[in-house]
Structure formats: C-alpha cells, structure tokens
C-alpha cells in the first residue's frame, strides 16, 4: 500500500530530528499506523544525488523495502508508511529539517 496526500492541504506541525546521515546509521520514526519506518544513507552518485535504503523495522529486525533518492520536499519513505518525513533541503545540510506528515 502507498500513502499519498496533497501536501498543500496537509497540516504539518511536527518536526523530526535525525542523526547525521552515514553508511550504517539508521534513522527511524514510529508511524501513526504503528509501523516503525527506518532509512539509511547508502551513497552519493556522480551527480550529487543521495541514495538511501528504506526499511520496515516494525518486527524489531529491519526488513529491506527499497532504495530511493532522498530529495528535498519529498517524503524520504516515498509514501510506503502511514507517516512520512519530508526534508526541507539536502539531507546533509545543517539547516535541513524534516516535516512529519501523517497520511491517515
């Protein structure tokens, strides 16, 4: 299942704080639907785009879901969970904040 919403109509009031992205460092959020969504930096490609891995850690053991590019303004979890985290800028920028969005 994928979750999507019109971000211009969403009430986004909470912010997430994550550790600095690094290989082997997983950042996770408890979703409104009870899932535990996690992401981990993988590498930066030749064009400067950051690849991240997405995991479902609800069972206690992270289960790999997919690999995607982390893009400013797009949910890092790509709508795969009932809660998303939308970065305001580059995931390595010191001033980037992550907006919480609940899809349900």
Main sheet: strand order:
2-3-4-5
| Gap between N and C termini | 12 Å
Strand segment tally: 7
Largest sheet: 4 strands, antiparallel
Structural class: mainly beta
Residue-averaged pLDDT: 91
Rg over C-alpha atoms, rounded to the nearest angstrom: 13 Å
How many H/I helical runs? Answer: 0
Tell me the fraction of residues in β-strands, as a range: 35-45%
Comma- or semicolon-separated keywords:
mainly beta, four-stranded antiparallel beta sheet, 104 residues
Description of the molecule:
The protein is 0% helix and 39% strand. It is mainly beta. The model has no long low-confidence stretch (mean pLDDT 91).
In short, what is this structure?
This protein has 104 residues and is mainly beta. It has no helices and 7 strands. A hairpin with a 5-residue loop joins β2 and β3 (36-44).
Explain the layout of strands and helices:
Layout: E1 15-16, E2 26-30, E3 36-44, E4 50-56, E5 63-70, E6 83-87, E7 98-102
Antiparallel strand pairs: 1-7, 2-3, 3-4, 4-5, 6-7
């Amino acid at each position: 299942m994928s979750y999507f919403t019109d971000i211009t109509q969403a009430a986004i009031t909470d912010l997430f704080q994550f550790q600095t992205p690094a290989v082997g460092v997983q950042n996770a959020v408890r979703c409104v639907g009870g899932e535990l969504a996690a992401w981990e930096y993988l590498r930066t490609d030749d064009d400067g785009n950051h690849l991240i891995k997405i995991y479902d850690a609800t069972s206690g053991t992270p289960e790999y879901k997919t690999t995607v590019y982390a893009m400013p303004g797009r949910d890092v979890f790509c709508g795969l969970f009932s809660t998303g985290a939308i970065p305001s800028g580059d995931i390595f920028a010191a001033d980037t904040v992550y907006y919480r969005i609940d899809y349900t």
